[in-house]
C-alpha cells in the first residue's frame, strides 16, 4: 500500500468506472443492525447514503432493521399504507414487521422486523448454516445469537417480499453490513439465487479484536492466521460467519485499503471492491446560520468549562476535542491524553487549550453540582471536586481515561495552560449538561484530534472537516489515507487535515507530533486559521456521496453480472 493512492488495491477497478456502462439494480434491499438504530458509525454511513440511493431508485431502495418495539423511536415513522397486502401475507408466514420511513435525508422506506420468535429455532438455523456453509456457531457468545436471529429474520423479509412483488425480476440486490448480517446474506445466496448479494465488512471482527487486545496488528499482519487468532481470542463464531460470507457472496467489499489488507490476510479472501464512506452535508449550517451556531456552541462549552473548573476562559481559548467509540487504544484516546500532558510544558503554546474527550462511557448521571452552577450563573474562582468530568460514571474508580489522568497527575489546576475534560455521554441533545447534539457542539472546536490506531475509515474526522474544523488523524485510518491521496502528500494542518504516520510502536512520536501541531496552530494568524478552515471544508466536498456513489454502482454491477451468469447456467 503506497499510503497516498486510496484506490490502489489490486482488486480495485476504479480506473474503469468512468468508462463502463453499469447494469443498475431495479431494487436494493439493505440490512444492518444500525437501520433506524443509532448505535455507531455504520448508522452514519447508511443514513447519509440513503438520499443518494433514494434519488436514484425512488422508493425501490428498502432498508431493513431490527424492531425493538420502541413506540418512541424518533428515527422511524410507521406508515400502514405501505405494502399493506404484503404485510398481511408476511404475517401469515410468521413474520412480524412494521413498515414506514426512516427519518433521515431522503426518507427511504424502512422495514423493522421482530427477530425474537426465531430464538426458539436457533439450533435448527445453526445446523443448516453448518451443513451448507460450515459456519461454526458452537462457540457463540455475547451478541452473536441476537445478531444472527435478526440477520435470519431480515433475510426472510427479503424472501417474502421478493416472492410477493418481484418474482422473475433479476436485477435485485441484497446488501448486508458487517458479520452480524452474514447469516442472512448466506440464506439469500442459497434460497434466492436470482438475487445478487453484496456483503460489506466495515472492520474485520478478528482484526478489531487483535488490536483491542493490545497485540501488534500491522507489522505482523502477514504472519497472522485468522482461524488460529480466532481460537486464541475466543472469536471463532464471529470470524467463521464473516469468513464464509466473504467467500460465498457475489460481491465482497470493505471501506478502505487498510481493511482490504486485513480481509486478504485474516479472511483469506481479497475484497472485490473498496467502497469509501461518503457524507451528506445538507445539515451543515451555511452563512449567517453557521456563524450563529458556532458562537452559541463556543459560549456553551466555555460556560460549562468555567463552571466546572472555576476559571474565566474567554473566546480566545483554543478548543480541541476527540470523539468516537470508547475504544481506549484503538481510537487513540491514550495517545491524545499523552499529547495534552506534554503540551502542558510546551513553551510555544500561545493560547490556553480547552480539550475534551467526547466518548460514551458507563455514564451514571449528569453532575448536579455542575448543573447548579450553570443554572445560578455568575463567576466562580474555585473548581468543583473532580474537575475532570461532566457526568458521574458508574465505574469512576476503574475508568481508563480517569485512571490515566490520575497517573499523569493531570488535575486541571488553575495555572495549567491545558485543561482536559472528559464528556462521557452520547451527545443527543438531552445529556443534562450541554443539551446540544454532537453536530451542534462540534462547531465550537478550533481543532479535532483523532489519533487512531485501528480505524477502517473514520467518520469523525470527515464530520469535523465538513463543519470547517481542521483535524489531526493518522495514516492507520482510511480517511487519513484518502486525504493523503487527495493532497498527493502527507496532509498538514494548513491543508485542513494533518495526517500523522502511525505504526505499532511509535506511540511517543505520535504524541509529540500532535503536541507540536496544536502548539503550531495556536500561533497561526487569523488569516492562516481561516485558510486552514476553508481548506478543511473544501476537502469535505470531495467526500460527498455524489462523488463516492459510483463505487457502489460498480459493486452492484459486479454482483448483478455474477448472479445473471449463475442463473443462466
CATH class of the largest domain: Alpha Beta
Write down the CATH topology of the largest domain: Rossmann fold
Output the CATH homologous superfamily of the largest domain. Glycogen Phosphorylase B
Counting helices, strands and paired strands, the structural category is: alpha/beta
Helix proportion: 40-55%
Number of strands: 17
Biggest sheet details: 9 strands, mixed
The CATH architecture classification of the largest domain is: 3-Layer(aba) Sandwich
CA-atom Rg in angstroms: 24 Å
SS summary, helix count: 19
- Average pLDDT works out at 94
Strand content: 5-15%
Question: How many structural domains in the coordinates?
Answer: 2
Low-confidence segments? 1-19
Strand order of the largest sheet: 3-4-5-2-1-6-7-8-9
Terminus-to-terminus distance: 38 Å
Q: Based on Cα principal axes, name the global outline.
A: globular
Description:
- The radius of gyration is 24 Å and the shape is globular.
- Helix 4 packs parallel to helix 5 (182-191) and helix 7 (226-232) runs antiparallel to helix 8.
- The protein is 42% helix and 14% strand.
- The strands form three sheets. A nine-stranded mixed β-sheet has the order 3-4-5-2-1-6-7-8-9, sandwiched between helices.
- The longest helix is centred in the last third of the chain and has 24 residues, at 545-568.
- It is of the alpha/beta class.
- The protein has helices at residues 41-57, 84-92, 122-133, 144-166, 182-191, 205-212, 226-232, 236-248, 257-266, 287-309, 333-343, 368-376, 400-407, 438-441, 459-466, 478-487, 507-522, 526-541, 545-568; strands at 27-31, 61-66, 76-78, 97-102, 109-113, 172-177, 196-201, 251-254, 273-274, 318-323, 353-358, 363-366, 391-393, 418-423, 447-449, 471-474, 497-500.
- It has two domains: 21-279 and 546-568, Glycogen Phosphorylase B (Rossmann fold, 3-Layer(aba) Sandwich); 287-543, 3-Layer(aba) Sandwich (Rossmann fold).
